[in-house]
Every structure is written in C-alpha cells, then in structure tokens.
Design goal:
Elements (H helix, E strand, L loop, with lengths): L9 E12 L2 E12 L2 E6 L6 H8 L6 E6 L3 E4 L13 H5 L6 H10 L14 H13 L5 E5 L7 H16 L3 E5 L3 H7 L2 E6 L1 E6 L5 H8 L11
Parallel strand pairs: 3-7, 3-8, 5-6, 6-7
Antiparallel strand pairs: 1-2, 1-4, 8-9
C-alpha cells in the first residue's frame, strides 16, 4: 500500500476517471484520494455526477481512467429498497449477511435502535434508515461510499450518525460521503471534492464563493450547523 512519509496509508486513488452514459459525458478527468481515518465529502448540484462517481468507484458501471483500492469497499446507495411485506425483525435485517454481529450491535446501540425483535416494516422511515446504515457499516469494509446517508434522519439521529462516522474514522476507515448540505459537510469533512462533471476543488474544507459559484453555477450561501 502506498504511503507518504507523513501521511496515513492510502485506501483509494481515483485517477482521470470518466463516465459516458449514452453519448453524454457525465464525468470527466476526476481525480482524488482517500486515506485511512479520513472523511472526504462530494459536493455539487443535482445532476453533477456524484452518484455516478460512487457507482464507478464501486465497480457498478463502466468508466475510463483508473480506480485503485487498498482494502474492501462497501457502497450504500441513496435509494434503499427492502421488501416490507416480509415480516423481518430489526435483527433479521441488521444481521443479514453480516459476519461481525457485535460490530452491528454496537452501531445499533449508538444509533439508539434498542429493540431487535421489533418488526422492521413498523419502523418509521428514519428508524429503517438507521437499521440499514448499521448493517452497512458493520460489514467490516475499509472504505465506505455513502450516498446522501442523512436523508430521512432527524436532527438527533443525524448527530448520532455523525458520532458513528467519527468512530469509524478513529478506527482508520475511509469514508466518501455525498451530501447536498454545504455547511454541514464542510464542518464534518477532512477534505471536500466540489464536482460538477469535473472537479472544481479538492482540498481542505473551506467556503470560497468563487469555487462554489463555479461548481453550482450560482452564488451559494452555506447553511452552517451549530454542531
């Protein structure tokens, strides 16, 4: 695994990645890295190619350029489908296909999901989201690709989930996070990638009106969070 003298080991390197869907160029020349213990967030408007980038990294769609991975990758899509007509319990869903049940149980506890015997389909949308997140984060992967994971979570649940992300970060995991919330993302991340088909900025979180105007095509005022 490549390692700079003063930097944590690399987990992911994306080099000149491009994606074409139909005859339309969706992504062009995208390059960035993720190291151990790092949260890298992807910002950009709707249609910027953020989800497409995660799918390309996960190997779900063809692409040009190079994706190098050191470790195991897990991808949590924005749309999470589950057959609610099957009477699964919370535990059935949370532990499905997971080897490290203790890790999942720890995350469920941190997300305040207490009753593993409750029927999954009776949960609220936010509670279902937390169970699926716990299962995903308990896979033992080294790199987590998350597409809008805060969707459906209220403020308390979002804070709980942030604590889980920080726990994974402390354990040397790499996290790539797509979010529409500029202010929240800047406060949470180690580095950000401003994307709109191509990369307009990749570096330490900062609010630069020029960069965000280029990325979004409009003037952007971030909504800062007090946490």
């Amino acid at each position: 695994m490549p390692r700079d003298t003063d930097s944590p080991p690399l987990l992911l390197r994306v080099s000149s990645l491009g994606v074409e869907i139909g005859r339309r160029r969706v992504l062009e020349g995208v390059s960035f890295e993720v190291r151990r213990g790092e949260i890298v967030s992807i910002l950009g408007p709707n249609g910027a190619g953020k989800t497409t980038l995660l799918k390309a990294i996960a190997g779900l769609i063809p692409h040009t350029g190079e994706v190098e991975v050191w470790g195991r990758v897990a991808y949590l899509p924005q749309e999470k489908t589950f057959n609610t007509f099957i009477p699964f319990t919370v535990g059935d869903v949370a532990y499905l296909g997971v080897k490290d049940r203790d890790a999942v149980r720890e995350i469920l506890r941190k997300l305040s999901v207490e009753d593993e015997n409750q029927t999954f389909h009776t949960l609220s949308g936010g509670q279902k989201q937390k169970v699926l997140i716990a299962r995903f984060l308990g896979t033992g992967a080294d790199i987590f690709l998350l597409d809008e994971p805060f969707t459906g979570l209220d403020k308390v649940s979002s804070l709980e989930f942030e604590r889980v992300l920080k726990m994974l970060k402390e354990r040397g995991k790499g996290i790539v996070l797509v979010s529409h919330d500029v202010g929240h993302t800047l406060s949470l991340s180690d580095r950000v990638l401003c994307l709109n088909r191509k990369v307009f900025y990749h570096g330490k979180p900062k609010y630069d009106p020029k960069i965000f105007a280029q990325t979004y095509g409009i003037s952007v005022v971030p909504m800062w969070h007090d946490h």
